Amino acid sequence: MSNQEFVVLGQDGDGPDGCCPGLLTAPLAEDQATELAKVFKALGDPVRLRLLSLIASRAGGEVCVCDLTPAFDLSQPTISHHLKLLREAGLIASERRGTWVFYRLLPEMTDRLAGILTRPAGQPLPEPAEAPA
Amino acid sequence: MSNQEFVVLGQDGDGPDGCCPGLLTAPLAEDQATELAKVFKALGDPVRLRLLSLIASRAGGEVCVCDLTPAFDLSQPTISHHLKLLREAGLIASERRGTWVFYRLLPEMTDRLAGILTRPAGQPLPEPAEAPA
DNA sequence: GCCTTGGATCGACAGACGTCAACATAGAGG
DNA sequence: CCTCTATGTTGACGTCTGTCGATCCAAGGC
Questions:
Q1: Does residue B69 register a pLDDT over 80?
Q2: Which of A78, A116, B2, B57 shows its CA 20 to 30 Å from the CA of A102?
Q3: Within the 71-110 window of chain B, which residues sit less than 8 Å (CB to CB) from chain A?
């Protein structure tokens, strides 16, 4: 447990000031797109979004699986499966303490996604073109 | 064309100052999660991420489909299909001008996603709990 | 040791998704 | 009209995904 099998998502791309490197400014390379898509795909499910929300908004920063499972009309293996996908995406991490397993948010990844989706202040937004090349 | 069939994603949830309502702060209701998941699912594909990146980073704000298709090793119907999904997710909009169709980014949606993924400044991050209820 | 409880893993299944070839549609220009 | 080019749509096919029941593993208590 407590494994961190997620990819670091090319942390070198952006400047040290925390500004976003791509998606809205640069054409985004093929392998970068593949890595990013894994994370967004992990967020592309209502159950996983609610799981992440429950974990992130928890006072204390950690949630026991035994508190997550009864919040859904789904079987325990299904919840475990979704948690695994969120973990493999680098969005959460797990740690076993005694009988229970606790999950916590990894804010680095959500911060990173937020930066990727943020455009650099005032986008020019000029007039439309007339015809392609 | 130029249709805007996307959902507005519950624009009422957040304060007027642009602060984010959920995902990292509140447990996120079931229907909100369903709507949000559609958008993230649209981003959960490498081809669509690259398409969105190409459109958003284009100087001029608009891209002709004829400029997008040759950038991929995919058939034209496949590109058209991905563009449709991005459009239905509210991430881009299309407009026909003469023979060509131009796509442009809808920054409201990416701004919204960035806000949703942004935590409200200093998250407390207290010590872990000891045992569940 | 044995049993109980909390979670993860496995195997199977229906439905969703990405892809293509074929066809349909919309303008532009004869 | 007719044709050509640029896009969207349809139908089909293989793969991926979400879900479950059954099973397995880890830790604690007896």
A1: yes
A2: A116
A3: 97-98, 100, 102, 104-105, 107, 110
